[in-house]
Specification:
five-stranded mixed sheet, alpha/beta, binds ligand AOF, 10 helices, globular, single chain, 355 residues, binds zinc ion
């Protein structure tokens, strides 16, 4: 039992967010959503949205709760839908099940739903509270929210730097900057991200596979590689050009079947195209050339900076030399990763309901 309702709401919403997190990277173009049903002092139903085309989180939780859903409180990380999409409206399912109260973390920015789901529930006499752990939910749904409002995936640039702000030796030879737990973190990130972008320079130099490698785990999946190769320098036999990969090029190179080709030099246009493919999140890995191009176009939304406790002295400093003037960010926080410190910063706001 909980001390009071606020404590109960926060705790159970936290559980709903954890359920949603299980499907991160698997639901696109849909959002990750989790749902918990609480009645008679205990959790009686749990659910999350596993994959686009499958039932929504609320439906799984209602099924799990069975008759115990009547008179219950429902915690859901995204406003229940009110529209007929690939599945019928969850608001109707909740009304039909006779739930008493619905607690929502964040409203749905999808214009088909936005506000209408809550309105439908209230019109049916159900109490609705909105905004419990809203910030956490919005961060978890950042990719979906960006694509639904702006038509393009959310772009995260990750890089490592020494304490004195150096990313690599001047000759760019590969040195490992970060520790083991940061590397594990990066593979966790790949497991949850829809696509990874690299430039041709990185492919030719490092021959990356861009796969997810997490020891002892058999539930991982690989992100879609997106290779920026303007002049067609990457051989079509490169490992990274596996089935489903995307190549962005202006060359007339012919690619095997199963490789998707975007012929454009305009980054905004390319991102819109990736949005059309249902990609909600794009992780920018590799060299400063591609990152600088994204940065100049204001297309880096989030930064993940691994700070490693080393000093390099002479070396390549970060890409920010492309900018002048002081730029504010929309929030930042730090995490300890054993050997390293991870800074997360939001350069562009995460779209709310107003966009
Ligand atoms: C989800 N899972 O748990 C919730 C969603 O095409 P549909 O029928 O799957 O509808 C997708 C939309 O439904 C999605 O864009 C979002 O606005 C809303 N809510 N979607 O995939 C869920 N609650
Ligand atoms: Zn729904």
């Amino acid at each position: 039992m909980y001390q009071d309702r606020t404590e109960q709401d926060t705790h159970l919403m936290q559980e709903a967010l954890s359920l949603a997190a299980r499907a991160l990277g698997r639901t696109s173009p849909n959002p990750p959503v989790g749902c918990v049903i609480y009645h008679h002092g205990r959790v009686v139903g749990r659910g999350f949205h596993p994959k686009a085309g499958e039932p929504h989180a609320e439906v799984f939780a209602l099924k799990d709760a069975g008759d115990l859903a009547r008179g219950s409180t429902v915690y859901v990380t995204l406003e229940p839908c009110s529209h007929h999409g690939r599945t019928p409206p969850c608001a109707d399912a909740l009304i039909e099940a006779g739930v008493r109260r619905v607690v929502v973390a964040a409203l749905d920015p999808n214009p088909l739903v936005s506000g209408k789901g809550v309105e439908k529930l209230r019109n049916a006499g159900i109490q609705v509270a909105v905004g419990v752990l809203q910030e956490q939910a919005t961060v978890q749904q950042a990719g979906f929210r960006t694509r639904i409002v702006q038509g393009r995936p959310r772009v995260t640039y990750k890089f490592a730097q020494t304490l004195d702000g150096k990313m690599a030796p001047l000759q760019r030879e590969q040195v490992w900057l970060t520790g083991l737990s940061s590397r594990r973190f990066v593979h966790e990130l790949r497991n949850q991200t829809d696509a990874i972008a690299v430039g041709s320079g990185t492919v030719l130099m490092d021959h990356p596979q861009l796969t997810t490698r997490l020891e002892g785990r058999d539930d991982t999946r690989d992100p879609t590689p997106v290779v920026f190769d303007r002049s067609g320098r990457v051989p079509v036999t490169a490992k990274v050009l596996r089935e489903g990969a995307v190549v962005v090029t202006e060359s007339q190179q012919v690619y095997p079947e199963g490789i998707r080709v975007i012929r454009s030099a305009d980054l905004r246009e390319v991102l819109q195209e990736l949005g059309t493919l249902g990609i909600n999140s794009l992780l920018l890995e590799g060299g400063p050339t591609l990152a600088s191009a994204f940065l100049k176009a204001h297309l880096i939304d989030d930064l993940l900076v691994f700070i490693t406790p080393k000093i390099m002295g002479t070396g390549l400093s970060s890409i920010w030399t492309e900018l002048s003037g002081l730029q504010e960010v929309h929030g930042m926080h730090a995490e300890n990763l054993e050997e390293d410190v991870l800074l997360r910063a939001f350069l562009n706001p995460i779209p709310g309901v107003e966009g």
